[in-house]
């Protein structure tokens, strides 16, 4: 490894400590869930306005392209959000921050009311481009128009052209890791 123009020797971890192990059930659902739980992600709430008004906590969300501005979200075929995005052809994203753990939990709870009534329990404003609910107190917001859909196993990947994007002046991200919410450690110099 090279650092500041000088070679730095790194010590490899003990082979037993962090070696991948192949097991006969490596591709089963539980194993994959455990493995993917080791990948830290941000937390979003995806929303759709209109007749299919709905919200859903999601961490399967990412930026795809800056030119043109595109994002991607992955939704299970069985989720209510799948039908909502398919019909409305647009969605909004609220990127959650520290202090919004209850909001993330609420939109992940399948027992919450369906339709517009689910938004009675939270503060929200309609997105100016899509009318989809945007959640105040978040770190950032996007509104998107679906431009393509790809099938991937039991999910669809919705590619969204970004119609608008705004961000809060400050805040810390809410993270998901190992099946639980986490906060970033403060950055030290």
From TrEMBL:
Q: What are the UniProt keywords, alphabetically?
A: Oxidoreductase
Q: Domain Flavin reductase like, which positions?
A: 36-183
What are the GO BP annotations of this UniProt entry?
pyrimidine nucleobase catabolic process
Region named Disordered: 1-28
Query: What start-end ranges are recorded for coiled-coil regions in this protein?
Result: none
MF annotations from Gene Ontology: FMN binding; riboflavin reductase (NADPH) activity
The protein's name in its UniProt record: Oxidoreductase
Q: Which organism is it from?
A: Nocardiopsis ansamitocini
């Amino acid at each position: 490894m090279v650092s500041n123009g000088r070679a730095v020797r790194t010590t490899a971890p003990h082979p037993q400590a962090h070696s991948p192990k192949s097991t006969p059930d490596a591709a089963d659902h539980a194993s994959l869930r455990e493995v993917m739980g080791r990948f830290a992600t941000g937390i979003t709430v995806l929303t759709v306005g209109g007749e299919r008004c709905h919200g859903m906590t999601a961490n399967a969300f990412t930026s795809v392209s800056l030119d043109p501005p595109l994002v991607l979200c992955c939704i299970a075929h069985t989720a209510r959000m799948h039908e909502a995005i398919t019909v409305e052809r647009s969605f909004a994203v609220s990127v959650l921050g520290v202090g919004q753990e209850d909001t993330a939990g609420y939109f992940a709870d399948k027992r919450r009311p369906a339709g517009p009534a689910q938004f009675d329990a939270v503060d929200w404003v309609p997105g100016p481009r899509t009318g989809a609910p945007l959640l105040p107190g978040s770190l950032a917001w996007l509104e998107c128009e679906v431009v393509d859909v790809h099938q991937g196993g039991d999910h669809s990947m919705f590619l969204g052209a970004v119609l608008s994007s705004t961000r809060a002046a400050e805040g810390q991200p809410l993270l998901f890791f190992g099946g639980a919410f986490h906060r970033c450690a403060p950055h030290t110099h």
